[in-house]
């Protein structure tokens, strides 16, 4: 794709912004169900009230300002976006990738997070085949605010086997935005790394002059490594004001093989996704209602002691978008229920009806309301309010015949509640064509609590034949139940950004952000210090044991960053962007060792420390050659580096990506779009000693992809890891599944990456 195809983002997009878009049963009492219904009614009432206040009240407050504005109808204010873009009119802007790039990447993966590979500042924590955890500028997992169709998805597993981006499939994904580092307060709170916004396809409406419009799409893909297959179908029927659409997909893969031919155990998965979307629009107003079911019969986790053996999610989302004479309004409401089960798959010795079942039931509900008011030609005000509610139950059924895992049900988290109420105001001012500023403040109140818990047994010791073992979980449970568990955090965020454009070939952007994140339910309330109980908690891929800490303080990150952007005057031929940043995190939630486990693993408690992260992202692109006969060639590259350190211990921070780069040469000729990628990563030798993080050697991979589109048919092909290179994932964690299969002897090693894989895909539109 040439740079001429890049559309500038609106000046209001202040951040490192990349836009990617392509054309249960369980212990739930009656009282608990009533509480859920009450919360939903409260959320709906709050959304309606906020909408009324943001409409009529704002018109009354700013009559002169809004009357001078011409607000476009909704169809024009929500244009179709077909690129990933971070152009020079957005602060701390990033790279650019065409819609064809997304279409070409989809056949290669079933993991939405993997589509973000190659964006500045983005790295991925290894996890299951469709459950990678994204990190932004060295900060990952819950430190990233991930919104799926406008709503956060809380962890519904002590190992985060079902993270937010796993709840939407690549085939259903329509748009994904990544705002890294200095993030506007309007992009969300309760996070310190940035925001990722994943959106499914909006309703399709009939164009003018067409009474009834119908369209559909069928797609299929195959990946040779692991014999991964994906099939998807979409269909819509609509008038100019009503729309009904369906999207469904199924994706499955077996264990992949590393570059040396070794089968990497516990990397298989199976996921099925179905969603129905209904839309209504009229006179600049649109209402969208979407509901769906996702089932995941199994997913292996090579770095964890357990696997996912069942995961079922039901969700319902509603959205209102409206254009008024005073500005625009975006209101959303959401509800999601997830029933999750862990046990052992065959690679870890599992068998039908046996093992060690562990269950989680989570309900998320909430709303958000955002209003944008163009007060004058120079000033724009954004205000908003949101409520997020999470209820979590995490229990482990007794195992028949086991003296250690019975006779009671183990409650890891019982009646866990995490609520958050957030409010923000943001002012953007274009002082002149050269100077633009933005100031924002935000308040989030987070209150958390949990009920009394119980171990497998209240006895102080457990019998094991002729032996008796101490039962620390009984002592821990009594101490946990005896203390006050409710916690309330009052958090404040602030963002200040400025952009200076001295000429049509350069721009300088600078800013400061104060961001705050409160602990999640597991960080505060995972109470068991026993060897087995602690080792079941932790989403870090290191097979260590983790214990919660009710006295954890919220993390407070202070970030300063600058972006220098250079490009040709027409923004068609070349561009270079450099973004250095510095982040100081007060009360960073790290760990402290409190004991050891068998086979060299350790027991860790979450604890507050101070930490710093220093890094830089460099991106560049240039058109190399263009000819009508042989097509156009374009070269692009991204380089990332980050250094993280715990100031209290002097240790390295965990899961910090070493120096890495991605160099891409693209070619386009008519319907053909091809690329060659060189992915290079330096040796990871700075690791966190407290968790026994493994070191990994440097490596370089070559990937090929090509696609051809004519009419309503598109064909894709590619090869990943062309030379079948053996390498280890720097953030992949440890290969616990292989270690266990080998009898848990020796030292556990780093997780190998996937070897060569041939990829083919086809999409037919009708």
UniProtKB/TrEMBL annotation:
Q: Which UniProt keywords apply?
A: Cell outer membrane, Membrane, Receptor, Signal, TonB box, Transmembrane, Transmembrane beta strand, Transmembrane helix, Transport
| Signal sequence bounds | none
Bilayer-spanning residue ranges: 42-66
List the subcellular locations.
Cell outer membrane
Ranges for domain TonB-dependent receptor-like beta-barrel: 257-722
Q: What is its main location?
A: membrane
What domain of life does the UniProt record list for this protein's source?
Answer: Bacteria
InterPro entries attached here? Answer: Beta-barrel_TonB, Beta-barrel_TonB_sf, Plug_dom, Plug_dom_sf, TonB-dep_rcpt-like, TonB_rcpt_CS
Do the record's keywords include Transport? yes
Span of domain TonB-dependent receptor plug: 108-195
The membrane topology noted for this protein in its Swiss-Prot or TrEMBL record is: Multi-pass membrane protein
Under the cellular component aspect of Gene Ontology, which terms does the record hold? cell outer membrane
Biological process GO annotation list? Answer: siderophore transmembrane transport
GO MF terms, alphabetically ordered: siderophore uptake transmembrane transporter activity
Motif TonB C-terminal box, per the record, lies over: 749-766
Keyword Cell membrane among UniProt keywords: no
Which family does the record claim for this protein?
Belongs to the TonB-dependent receptor family.
Question: What is the designated name of this protein?
Answer: TonB-dependent receptor
């Amino acid at each position: 794709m040439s740079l001429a195809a890049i559309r500038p983002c609106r000046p209001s997009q202040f951040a490192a912004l990349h836009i990617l878009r392509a054309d249960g049963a369980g212990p739930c009492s009656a009282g608990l169900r009533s509480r859920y219904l009450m919360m939903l009614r409260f959320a709906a009432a709050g959304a309606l009230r906020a909408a009324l206040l943001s409409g009529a009240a704002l018109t009354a407050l700013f009559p002169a300002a809004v009357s001078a504005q011409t607000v476009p109808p909704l169809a024009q204010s929500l244009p179709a976006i077909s690129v990933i873009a971070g152009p020079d009119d957005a602060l701390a802007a990033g790279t650019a990738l065409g819609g064809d790039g997304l279409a070409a990447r989809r056949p290669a993966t079933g993991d939405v997070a993997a589509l973000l590979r190659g964006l500045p500042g983005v790295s991925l924590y290894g996890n299951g085949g469709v459950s990678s955890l994204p990190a932004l500028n060295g900060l990952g997992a819950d430190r990233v605010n991930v919104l799926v169709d406008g709503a956060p998805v809380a962890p519904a597993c002590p190992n985060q086997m079902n993270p937010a981006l796993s709840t939407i499939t690549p085939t259903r994904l329509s748009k994904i935005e990544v705002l890294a580092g200095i993030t506007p307060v309007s992009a969300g709170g309760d996070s310190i790394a940035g925001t990722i916004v994943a959106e499914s396809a909006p309703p399709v409406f009939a164009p003018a002059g067409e009474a009834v419009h119908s369209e559909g799409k069928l797609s299929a893909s195959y990946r040779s490594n692991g014999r991964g297959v994906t099939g998807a179908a979409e269909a819509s029927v609509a008038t100019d004001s009503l729309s009904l659409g369906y999207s469904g997909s199924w994706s499955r893969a077996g264990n992949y093989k590393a570059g040396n031919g070794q089968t990497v155990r516990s990397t298989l998965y199976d996921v099925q996704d179905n969603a129905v979307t209904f839309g209504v629009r009229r006179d600049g107003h649109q209402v969208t209602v979407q509901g769906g079911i996702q089932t995941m019969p199994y997913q292996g986790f090579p770095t964890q002691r357990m696997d996912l053996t069942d995961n079922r999610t039901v969700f319902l989302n509603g959205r209102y978008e409206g254009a008024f004479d005073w500005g625009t309004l975006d209101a959303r409401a959401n509800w999601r229920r997830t029933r999750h089960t862990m046990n052992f798959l065959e690679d870890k010795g599992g068998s039908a009806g046996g093992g060690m079942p562990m269950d989680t039931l989570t309900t998320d509900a909430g709303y958000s309301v955002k209003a944008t008011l163009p007060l004058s030609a120079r000033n724009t005000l954004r205000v908003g309010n949101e409520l997020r509610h999470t209820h979590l139950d995490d229990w482990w059924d007794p195992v028949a015949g086991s003296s250690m895992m019975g006779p009671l049900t183990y409650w890891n988290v019982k009646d866990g509640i995490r609520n958050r109420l957030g409010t923000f105001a943001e002012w953007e001012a274009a002082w002149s064509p050269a100077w633009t500023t933005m100031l924002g403040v935000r308040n989030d109140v987070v209150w958390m609590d949990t009920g009394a818990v119980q171990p497998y047994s209240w006895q102080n010791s457990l019998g094991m034949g002729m032996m008796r073992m101490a039962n620390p979980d009984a002592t821990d449970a009594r101490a946990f139940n005896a203390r006050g568990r409710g916690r309330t955090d009052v958090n404040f965020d602030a963002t200040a950004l400025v952009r200076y454009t001295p000429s049509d070939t350069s721009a300088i952007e600078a800013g400061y952000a104060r961001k705050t994140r409160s602990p999640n339910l597991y960080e505060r309330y995972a109470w068991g210090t026993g060897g087995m109980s602690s080792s079941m908690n932790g989403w870090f891929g290191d097979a260590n044991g983790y214990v919660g800490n009710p006295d954890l303080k919220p993390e407070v990150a202070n970030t300063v960053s600058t972006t220098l952007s250079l490009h040709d005057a027409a923004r068609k031929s070349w561009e270079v962007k450099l973004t250095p940043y510095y982040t100081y995190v007060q009360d960073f939630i790290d760990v402290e060792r409190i004991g050891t486990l068998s086979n060299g693993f350790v027991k860790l408690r979450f604890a507050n420390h101070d930490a710093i992260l220093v890094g830089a992202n460099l991106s560049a692109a240039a058109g190399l050659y263009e000819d009508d006969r042989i097509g156009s060639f374009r070269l692009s590259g991204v380089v990332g580096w980050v250094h993280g350190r715990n100031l209290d211990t002097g240790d390295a921070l965990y899961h910090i990506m070493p120096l890495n780069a991605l160099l891409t040469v693209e070619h386009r000729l008519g319907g053909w779009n091809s690329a060659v990628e060189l992915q290079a990563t330096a040796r990871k030798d700075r690791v966190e000693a407290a968790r026994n993080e493994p070191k990994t050697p440097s490596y370089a991979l070559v990937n090929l992809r090509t696609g051809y589109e004519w009419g309503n048919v598109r064909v894709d092909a590619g090869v990943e890891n062309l030379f079948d290179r053996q390498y280890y994932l720097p953030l992949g964690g440890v290969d616990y599944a292989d270690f266990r299969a080998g009898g848990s002897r020796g030292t556990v090693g780093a997780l190998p990456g996937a070897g060569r894989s041939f990829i083919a895909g086809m999409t037919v539109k009708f």
